[in-house]
Request: fold
Amino acid sequence: MALAIQSPANNALVGAGPVQVQVRLVANPNYASTTQYPDTLDFSASRNDGGSDVGSFGPVSRNEDTYTVTWTPPSAQAQLTLTVAHPTPAAVPSASVTVKVDAVAPTFTISIPDPTRIPGGPNQAEPRDSDTDYAKAYRRDESVTVAISANEPVSDVVLTVSGIASGGGVGQALTPKPVQAGGTCEGSPVFCGTATVDLYEPEMREFRGTMQFRVEGVDAAGNRGSATAGLKVTRWKWAFDGAGLIKASPALGEKGVVYFGTSVTNGKVFAIEPSGKKKWEVDVEAVEGSPAVGAFSNGTELVYVASNFAGVAGIGSGTRLRAINGELGTVLNTPCTFPVATGTPPSTISSAAITATTISSTPVETGLFVVSGNYGSAVGLRPTSVGANAVGCVNSDSSQGMPNSTAGGGLVATNTGQFAYPTDARRMVKYSFGTPAAQWTATPGGGSGQRVFGMALLVNTLLGSGGNDFDQGGVFQVAFDSTGTPPANALPDTDNGRVNQLVATADNKAYFGREYAGPSNLLARYDLSVPALSQASPAPGVLSAAPVIGSDGKLYTVNKSGELAVWTTSDPLSSQWKLPSIGLNIEASPTLDCARGSDGAPLGANRPGVLYVAVGNKLHAFVVDSPRLLKDPNSWPKFQHDVRNTGNPSTPITNCP
Reply:
């Protein structure tokens, strides 16, 4: 009676895969039981556009009155007519269906806009990577919204982002992110969708590199299409040019403002907001010791800074101490001046520290300095005090017979006015503010002593690091509550290489570089509880600056040749990534802050932090994966202990969450 095509349906849409064509030969019910069914039927196809490629049919199989054949459509987009006929001409009418073939995968496009950048200048740090290939790169701490378009209706669209592996290859992939239709795409694509990616989520085991964005989806016929695009990502945030060599470690305020000074004759103190915008600058003299920041109170904080001058008429050379309002950039009261004899070089100063001295039984925040010249003098700067000493500077004792400080050396202080520092006579000394006699004097390494540069105080253990030459020196340990002349011998396995600076953690691990005359410089992890060297990694370069330890256990070092390196502190001590050469003239120790918004408030506990590194005339901000500085109160994770550079173990290490 008839041929009935059961599948595909008329006007069906099929893709590139094989299609099962099923046909039933309908017999008159009166004769169905005696009907002789043919072994096969004749299948054919024709294109409505007249084309010759109509695909191919496989062998026909029969199950009683039903016939099945596999049809492989042409690899094209076309409309075809499938026809089936009885093998005996004119035995029954033929049957046909129209089939739309879509064997072509959808075409996707990923559009990524350029990041918005404010041009650098005198009042704004330069935000573009120094590598010209990455001048338009996104930063590790940014998000990017990509537009995804397709040339036909699609569904199940997902975006997969892969990070940057060691060596710059394709790293691990994140879980695919669904892409919803909507948003704005260029032109008038059939499908438009957008997806936002936080670039701190994919792995990034290099300083800069290319992340891979891959979009996939299927069209109505089931064809799967995809597209891939690369996105250049850098850790470079900005670089501010201070127009003068930066020798001292920068300090950070409550809202992430970075304070630093330049060591040229007409030096300046700068305040730079986390965005890289200059907040203020103050003309001073040569800043060679690290500034320190006081406690945040009434919407501001004080920045304590010392600067050296030379050849001033009627004064000669000397040091000036200032307290600067961190919000306004104004100098409180009159700078305190400490001249030295005419014709001598400018005096040397220690780093600044923050302690407390007493006025009428009331503790007052005091910026502490050891000023050296014809003699050493511990000077407390307390400009907010009242009464006779409101002008600011107070000498520790009228005798002023203290040893000179090692230039730029560490200064450790407590809230009770006790302080210790290394001297230029190869000694370590401890005083109490207002008392002329030293509480103790220690000779590092015994004999004639060793010059000490760095210091760290872990509860009652004072560590000093130094050495007189490449192949001598080490880490020296003194009980802080000692009296008289306690021993300060070099710890075992540290006495054969100069140690410029060190940091330490509450689990009694110290990290430092060991400097040798040859190329075999080492980065050491030392177990203070044994005591013994627990591991050393070769060839980090000469580490004149102190390392920095992040809250995630990563260790950051900057060597004298300008190489920034990131290390894991867990076993084994190994390098994760490096920036081979930032520049030369690196003397300042880096510091680490958390990510902050435009108001200076922290953005979140798990976002990447910012490492500040001074190189030559420039202060650099780099995005690193550590969310913040190590916060353990019994650790010493950076130069001068905390982001404020107080050198005081009672100061909270960071104000980040």
Observations:
- The chain is about 0% helix and 45% strand.
- The two ends are 82 Å apart (CA to CA).
- Residues 258 and 334 are 24 Å apart (CA to CA).
- Confidence is low (pLDDT under 50) at residues 387-391.
